[in-house]
């Protein structure tokens, strides 16, 4: 028996604001809210026969008192599904992301940070 990756928890100062940002980035919707937590995820796909199909992990944003102080030890990579990388980077910047330099040099991916400073990469070659 193995485990399935079903949820990624992200500590933050403002769960509702960060959840709205990531919903816009990923095309997700809010699944649950309560007591300093907001969980977002995709719509559940029907695989036929009333069984849910493969479902990507949900993201849960949890309010914590301390702020981010160093580079993330874990980060998300996103891949543009329907546009080129530079167009997706422009869209994400308009949503509130900002460019981030984590020492990546001249690479094929672009490093951005979400509104609370969590770094993530926008890949060029991988398509979902």
Describe the structure using short key phrases:
18% helix, 4-stranded mixed β-sheet, Signal recognition particle alu RNA binding heterodimer, srp9/1, 2,3-Dihydroxybiphenyl 1,2-Dioxygenase, domain 1, globular, alpha/beta, 2 domains, 128 residues, 8 strands
Overview of the structural elements:
The chain is an alpha/beta fold and 128 residues long. It has two domains: 1-66, Signal recognition particle alu RNA binding heterodimer, srp9/1, CATH 3.30.720; 68-128, 2,3-Dihydroxybiphenyl 1,2-Dioxygenase, domain 1 (Roll). The chain is 18% helix and 28% strand. It has helices spanning 15-26, 85-95; strands at 7-12, 29-34, 37-41, 58-63, 76-78, 98-99, 110-113, 119-122. The strands form two sheets. It has a four-stranded mixed β-sheet with strand order 1-4-3-2, covered by helices on one side. A four-stranded mixed β-sheet has the order 5-8-7-6, covered by helices on one side. It is globular. It starts with 6 loop residues before the first strand and ends in a 6-residue tail after the last strand.
Radius of gyration: 16 Å
Tell me the number of structural domains. 2
What distance lies between the first and last C-alpha atoms, to the nearest angstrom? 27 Å
Mean pLDDT: 88
What's the helical proportion of residues?
10-25%
User: Any idea of the CATH topology of the largest domain?
Assistant: Signal recognition particle alu RNA binding heterodimer, srp9/1
Order of helical and strand elements = EHEEEEHEEE
Named at the architecture level, the CATH assignment of the largest domain is: 2-Layer Sandwich
**Beta-strand residue fraction:** 25-35%
Strand order of the largest sheet: 1-4-3-2
